[in-house]
Design goal:
Elements (H helix, E strand, L loop, with lengths): L3 H19 L7 H24 L3 E7 L5 E6 L1 H24 L6 H19 L4 H19 L5 H28 L23 H16 L11 H7 L2 H27 L1 H4 L3 H23 L3 H21 L3 H32 L10 H4 L1 H15 L5 H16 L4 H29 L19 H19 L2 H14 L5
């Protein structure tokens, strides 16, 4: 049956989640449960990779009306996002098998972890706006328990804040879907957009205001100003593997929805050189700078990494909003390398917390002596996030900056590269000093050396996933040609109306 793999990619982790809850034999031994969860994640990755090498397919699940089909679709965009999300989710999941020994409510955690993976796969493979919205909301509600996991007062407050922001953003997105539906030629995603610009049901100015509200609404999940407030609150209170996927994967769900709306519904030609494009670029550049500044003054390690995500995800949004092929290549590269890097950094933070109890950057003096593998990988990932070659962060930022310079996008052609450069320096200022302190620092205010608190790096089940991510950052950064060719082909297809 054509398109069956699309359904399997969603149903496999969803059924696995239910089995974790209702199958008694999975609760007798945690080793059996971990093996089962790991198997489900690996099988989902295999299905997603099979979809990536298959031809384009569309599977209509059902039709509420002719204009409101619920459908799954495989295309260039879905393949990229689904592959990145599935692989990152699986790597963090294997890390959690060792990490979650130190946490309560493991069964609940894995059940929601798999169900969130299912909703993300369905979101990336959505073929219409309504389908995308349904799974976007589903992903939000199912991921809330990962924020609430510890059940502390701070976790409950963070979960409520995450939910309020997410629902508000999704409602803003739904407004746009309401207004776009009668003004598009096809309910299905169409490369280059399907907006009937000559026969809009409302005036262009009002329509553009609604589009701006819509895109900012979906930008909530990506932590874009002015809807960024939930991210630095929610990420630090979750278990570290959950923080990793919240930052490295779930933020990309907002980027995906913006990507779909601009390039598959509205059309980049309608937004090019309009006040809407400039406003969106303004929001993204403010977010890049603001996130870096807030990270610089933050002392909590996980919260510093969360503020960093506010900044770094908006690098990709800048690349999307520039509506240029080279900048779009950079945006997609940034999505890949930020997912790899931020997952690795949060997993390093989790290893540090489990092994030493250290949660603040000013407590990491001489930590490199007792946890050398962890701190070396943390340092390599930090260097990549700064944007130093040959690591992956460099090539992504290079393409975004080069794309901005040739895009001819008003003042932002110069402003975006300048902000990226300033942000890179700020990133170095808030991520590299902890590494320097860990390897070359002395006593911290008379405190005990971390070496006296812990004798080794974390177990292999926690260390190997971080190592895989770190190696990928180096290898893909040094040899990005295949990815660039793939992204460039997609970019030229989506932007052919404005080239």
């Amino acid at each position: 049956m054509e398109g069956l793999l699309l359904l399997v990619a969603f149903l496999l982790p969803a059924v696995g989640s239910l089995m974790v809850v209702f199958m008694p034999w999975l609760n007798d031994k945690r080793e059996d449960r971990c093996a089962f969860v790991g198997t489900i994640m690996v099988l989902t990755c295999i299905v997603v990779l099979l979809i990536a090498v298959d031809s384009e397919r569309t599977l209509v699940l059902f039709e509420m009306t002719k204009q409101l089909p619920i459908a799954l679709r495989s295309d260039g965009t879905s393949r990229i996002f689904s592959a990145v999300m599935a692989l990152m989710w699986t790597i963090s999941g294997f890390y959690s098998f060792s990490y979650m020994k130190h946490e309560q409510n493991e069964k609940t955690y894995y059940a929601f972890y798999l169900m969130t993976m299912a909703s993300l796969m369905a979101l990336t493979l959505s073929g219409t706006m309504v389908t995308m919205y349904l799974f976007f909301e589903m992903m939000t509600f199912i991921s809330v328990p990962m924020v609430l996991h510890s059940r502390t007062k701070e976790a409950v407050a963070a979960g409520i804040k995450y939910l309020i922001y997410s629902v508000a953003g999704a409602t803003m997105g739904l407004l746009g879907i309401f207004m776009l539906t009668p003004n598009i030629a096809s309910p299905y995603f169409v490369e280059g957009g399907s907006l009937m610009t000559e026969s809009l049901t409302i005036p262009h100015t009002a329509f553009q205001i609604i589009l701006l509200i819509t895109l900012i609404g979906f930008g909530t999940k990506a932590g874009m100003f002015p809807m960024h407030g939930w991210l630095p609150t929610a990420h630090p209170v979750a278990p570290s593997p959950a923080s990793a996927v919240l930052s490295g994967v779930i933020t990309k769900a907002g980027v995906l929805c913006i990507f779909r709306m601009i390039f598959y519904v509205i059309g980049p030609a309608y937004l090019k050189d309009t006040w809407v494009q400039w406003t969106l670029l303004g929001c993204a550049t403010i977010t890049v700078f603001m996130g870096s500044m807030l990270a610089l003054r933050e002392k909590s390690l996980k919260k510093r990494l969360a503020y960093s995500s506010v900044s770094q995800v908006s690098y990709a949004l800048c690349g999307v909003f520039l509506l240029d092929t080279m900048a779009l290549d950079g945006a997609l590269l940034q999505l890949v390398f930020h997912a790899l890097t931020k997952d690795a950094l949060f997993l390093c933070a989790g290893a540090i917390i489990v092994q030493t109890g250290i949660t603040r950057v000013d407590e990491m003096h001489n930590l490199g002596k007792s946890m050398p593998w962890t701190m070396w990988m943390f340092t390599i990932c930090a260097i990549s996030l700064v944007g130093i070659p040959p690591l992956g962060g460099f090539i992504a930022k290079w393409y975004i900056a080069e794309g901005a310079l040739v895009s001819g996008t008003n003042v932002f052609s110069l402003l975006v590269p300048i902000v990226l450069l300033i942000s890179a320096m700020l990133t170095a200022a808030y991520l590299l000093p902890p590494s320097v302190s860990a390897f070359f620092g002395g006593m911290a205010h008379g405190e005990v050396f971390p070496a006296e608190k812990v004798n080794a790096d974390p177990p292999k089940m926690m260390l190997v996933p971080i190592l895989i991510l770190t190696v990928a950052i180096f290898v893909l950064g040094a040899f990005p040609g295949l990815m660039i060719d793939l992204f460039d082909q997609l970019g030229h297809t989506l932007l052919r109306g404005v080239l």
